[in-house]
Amino acid sequence: MPHLYFARDPSPFAVKPQGSRDGGLIDLSPDGAPHEILIGLSQRRPRVYIERVQVEAEGFLANLDVQFTPGLNVIIGARGTGKTSLIELIRYALNAGAFTADAAAIGNQQALAVLEGGAVTVTVNDSGVQYVITRTSSGHIASSGGRSFPCTVLAQNEVEAVGAQAAGRLHLLDRFRPTREGTGRSLLGLQTEIESLTQELHAAIQEGSLLREQISSLAAVPEELAAAQAEQQSILAASQATEAERSRLLKLQASTETAALEAATIEQAVHASQTLTRTLFAAKGQTEQVLPPASSAKPDVILGPARECLAAIDRHLAAAEKLASQMMGILTEAQHRSAERRHEIDSQGRQLRQLLNSVQAGVGSATRRVAELQEQHGQLIALRKRLSQHTDVFQRLSKQRDGLYEQLDDLRSRIFSERREAADQLNARLLPLVKVSVTRSSSTAEYESAIIEALRGSGLHYNTLARLIVSAVSPLELASWVELGQHIKLANTLDVTPDRAAAIVGALRRSGVSRIVSAGIDDGVTLSLLDGRDYKTSDRLSIGQRCTVVLPVLLGHHGDPLLIDQPEDHLDNAFIASTLVPALRRRTSPDQFIFASHNANIPVLGNADRIIVMDSDGDRGYVRQSGPLDAHEIVQSVTQIMEGGPEAFSARARFYGAQLGPSI
């Protein structure tokens, strides 16, 4: 069985430099000369930006209507004016997701609280074409053209959480993969198919175990039948039975075996037919849930063709259900005729045994014993045939699953290559300060969790065993060994006793391995910051240092709108001025950043394209002003809100001038 999810020797997955690609961004080197950076992956999206947000609700942001532009948009305002709520409404409307589960839950709650039963509408401009997406508080989404648009939204404190959590770092790097949406759907589809096939294999294993038990209980029948036939032959030879009576007896006994085989075959067919009928009935019931009832008031233009297809499916299912019912009737009649035939054979045999027993004592019991064993032998033949068919089905399902798993592994390999390429491109831009690395199939938490769940209640030390198994055995290997009962292979791989391995296999076999074999095995992403002469990984950094690592990576992606609530949190002004602001000023025309901020350096030094000034009357938040950075009223608002007013700004200027003199 191939080892299909990670290599024990990690060397094949070491990050290697990739060759240059066509296209790229223009960045400025320290001396001001342009050079090509961050090429390829982040350049493949058309110009997409959020143009407008409208709120239809009775809540805090009732009737809000905000315009945005490409470039840098900065939302400013005192605390409690709705800046964070506006960003969370955009996340909610575009179903943008989050980097952490906590951020997703909190953001969703805040959006629903603001909407209070209403709806939010976002207008997205894609290369000059407007698309309108509306989402209600009940979760219903209506989108013109059926389009969805990716964007990245980070709530307050979510930036530092990205660096701390493995899933967040992986999500961050995946923003640079142009195929991330398609490969995500493909991964889920393959995992679902693999899980479904494994459930079928589990059912087949249980049925196979039952068949083997039944066969085992009849294992002595052939030998006992041969002995009983020899004894019968001996008694008949010594009796005065005629040749015709002997011949008739042997034919009746052969018929007994044939009838028993026939009855067992029909019984199996009846059982399979009942299962098929239930499946068809369930499928017919599911069609009723596919589409809502049609309205009689107006023609269903959009869903009409789909309803026609569904009606055709219903007709075919109804026809299939009718045929299945007819087949069930035929099989039931066959059962009845088979039972009558067996009764007739048994009656004739009983009469003949009585006749023979009258001529020679002992003939009746000997022939009755042969008849009983021949019936059991017929059942044994039927069980062996069923087991052979079952084995063929098991092998077919296993082969099919192996093929799907190979597809899954190929897809994971392609995703890893994309991630490695994205990391190389980021490193070309961010080294030596920040380093990004990718490790193949190092995130096995879901696999480990599936093993723990399967072993829970078994009496085994499942936490320790799960870690041991994950480090040495792939999900497909483990599933195959469990299904085939190959505990010795597990014992040798884990270096445990055969008895312990048998207990593990037995526990996993009872609980099933469908979740184990379909568990997600993902790559690991490491973000490191140069601290002195050494690199420290982001999970070992302070909160501020994590933001120092994550923000340059976020700003390196071009194409999707980027929304951040208070990116300055945990950052000192030196970093904002030296790193964050230059990154913002290097933005290209397709880029759109929407930041909510209290730090004047971001809009002013970042040369914001639009400032949105939020205000509140205590009951409702609203847009007080909106316009370019150099508009007089915007300058006044920035000075008042972000600098503390003209007097505070002038006082600081006088202080710095007095202390630093001409150097400023």
Automatic annotation (TrEMBL):
One of its GO terms (molecular function) is ATP hydrolysis activity. Residues 62-167 form the Rad50/SbcC-type AAA domain. Keywords: Coiled coil, DNA damage, DNA repair, SOS response. Signal peptide: none annotated. The keyword Flavoprotein does not apply. Residues 187-214 form a coiled coil. Gene3D superfamilies: P-loop containing nucleotide triphosphate hydrolases (3.40.50.300). Pfam families: AAA_23. GO terms for biological process: DNA synthesis involved in DNA repair; double-strand break repair; SOS response. This is Rad50/SbcC-type AAA domain-containing protein. It comes from Propioniciclava sinopodophylli.
